[in-house]
Structure to design on (505 residues):
């Protein structure tokens, strides 16, 4: 009988064990690969193309701005009034985190689109991404002042605590980037697929890029010494919006989830916002036919309508809370007139319109930045706004626009007329109504009397002062504490909505 010693037995056992382990590893690895193959969903790609991400980014950012215009922008600017939970237009502000969260979240898809465009050499698509990114970040800095900017868009993916950059640096870069976008879009290289805003038209995106530069230069005109020169160069070069066909507005569909964002909300929540007393007084005083588009007649009679306006900051019985509901284009009330029966369009999401561009050019002409005729641009801005809202002049006793302009009292006489008509034209244009009112308020020495169509809200809770900024969201204090504290120190040590940001210093 053959004998084996203990060492031989041990070696055999070790070899057998290793062999078994190798077999186990092989079969486990093979099974995992097969399992992963079985778990792959052929209808759910692992990477998403730019033409899928672009419409998602446009829709999300526009939806955020429509919602925040309803809740914040229109009310803070006194175009509309809150009849419930009146903190916004009583100027007793808390943090509005949905602005911060919604707009920063939109940047995620846009940055992927930009990276794909750069990698593929698609200059037109890159230009579109830059314009959208610049609009979103300009909205954020206009609202908050110093914000995460350079590290938020160019930093490492794992940088969860980006530095807050100064608003001045941000503005200079935004203007530069929009200028770069103009050049990319002018190149004609590449296509723009998935564009639900401007239909893939690079020429229209170029006009938007340059028009946005004019907007930013006007906002920063008290801080940038070369703003008049830059403005004139852009205006004289052309490639701006020239008609309502160039409007950067998002057309919504008739069904969820791509319908106008206010349509699905409860009637009670929609009724918490009404036409303001300031808007009502101005529109009704001029027999302005936009009144029947901004507001639903109290009697739901579109041939002989009646309207009313609610006071901003209406916290007691001494302030009027009776204001007309917002117009039919913004919401479908049961058993009441619809846009279909009126033959008009459901509301769009508005990024920027030709009317705004004309008012920018009118104000620049009045300031002497450009040599154009002030009244020509002013009149064109009003007419563009009327056309956009598909007004019916006859219901208000006018034959046509010329009749209205000549006989309603809106004909141009002073720069505050430009402010007044621009204010009306910015209805539901994101947060820009508030940004413009803030600019006029500061330029007027913080004197409400210098803005003839506005006044301190009834029972104002901020000593009759207009807030200068939005509060940073509370989560920033815990999630990005060091950089948040540095930004707050630059505001004077407090996260205060009356603190002066660079734009209003």
């Amino acid at each position: 009988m053959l004998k084996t010693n203990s060492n031989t037995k041990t070696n055999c056992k070790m070899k057998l064990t290793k062999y078994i382990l190798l077999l186990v590893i092989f079969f486990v690895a093979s099974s995992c690969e097969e399992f992963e193959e079985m778990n792959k969903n052929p209808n759910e790609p692992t990477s998403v193309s730019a033409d899928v991400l672009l419409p998602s980014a446009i829709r999300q950012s526009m939806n955020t701005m429509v919602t925040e215009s309803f809740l914040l922008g229109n009310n803070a600017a006194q175009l509309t009034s809150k009849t419930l939970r009146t903190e916004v237009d009583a100027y007793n502000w808390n943090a509005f985190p949905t602005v911060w969260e919604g707009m920063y979240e939109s940047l995620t898809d846009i940055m992927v689109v930009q990276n794909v465009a750069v990698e593929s050499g698609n200059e037109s698509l890159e230009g579109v991404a830059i314009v959208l990114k610049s609009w979103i970040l300009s909205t954020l800095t206009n609202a908050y002042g110093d914000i995460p900017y350079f590290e938020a868009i160019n930093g490492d993916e794992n940088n969860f605590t980006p530095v807050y950059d100064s608003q001045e640096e941000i503005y200079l870069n935004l203007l530069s980037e929009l200028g770069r976008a103009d050049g990319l879009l002018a190149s004609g290289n590449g296509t723009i697929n998935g564009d639900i805003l401007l239909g893939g038209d690079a020429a229209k995106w170029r006009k938007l890029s340059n028009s946005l530069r004019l907007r930013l230069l006007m906002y920063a005109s008290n801080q940038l010494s070369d703003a008049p020169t830059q403005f004139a160069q852009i205006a004289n070069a052309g490639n701006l919006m020239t008609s309502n066909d160039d409007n950067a507005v998002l057309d919504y569909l008739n069904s969820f989830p791509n319908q106008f964002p206010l349509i699905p909300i409860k009637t009670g929540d929609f009724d918490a916002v009404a036409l303001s007393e300031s808007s009502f007084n101005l529109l009704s005083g001029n027999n302005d036919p936009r009144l029947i588009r901004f507001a639903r007649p109290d009697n739901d009679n579109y041939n002989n309508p009646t309207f009313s306006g609610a006071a901003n900051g209406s916290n007691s019985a001494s302030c009027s809370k009776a204001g007309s509901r917002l117009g039919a284009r913004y919401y479908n009330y049961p058993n009441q007139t619809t846009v279909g029966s009126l033959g008009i369009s459901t509301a769009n999401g508005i990024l920027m319109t030709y009317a705004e561009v004309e008012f920018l050019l009118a104000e620049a002409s009045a300031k002497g930045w450009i040599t154009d005729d002030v009244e020509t641009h002013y009149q064109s801005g009003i007419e563009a706004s009327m056309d956009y809202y598909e007004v019916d002049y006859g219901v208000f006793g006018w034959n046509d626009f010329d009749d209205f302009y000549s006989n309603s009292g809106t004909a141009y006489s002073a720069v505050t007329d430009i402010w007044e008509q621009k204010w009306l034209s910015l209805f539901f244009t994101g947060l820009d109504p508030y940004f413009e009112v803030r600019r006029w308020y500061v330029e007027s020495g913080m004197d409400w009397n210098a803005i003839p169509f506005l006044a301190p809200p009834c029972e104002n809770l901020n000593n009759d002062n207009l807030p200068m900024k939005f509060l940073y969201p509370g989560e920033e204090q815990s999630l990005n504490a060091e950089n948040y504290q540095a930004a707050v120190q630059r505001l004077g040590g407090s996260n205060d909505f009356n603190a002066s940001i660079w734009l209003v210093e």
Residues 66 and 349 are 6 Å apart (CA to CA). The first strand starts at residue 80 and ends at 82. Residues 267-342 form one domain.
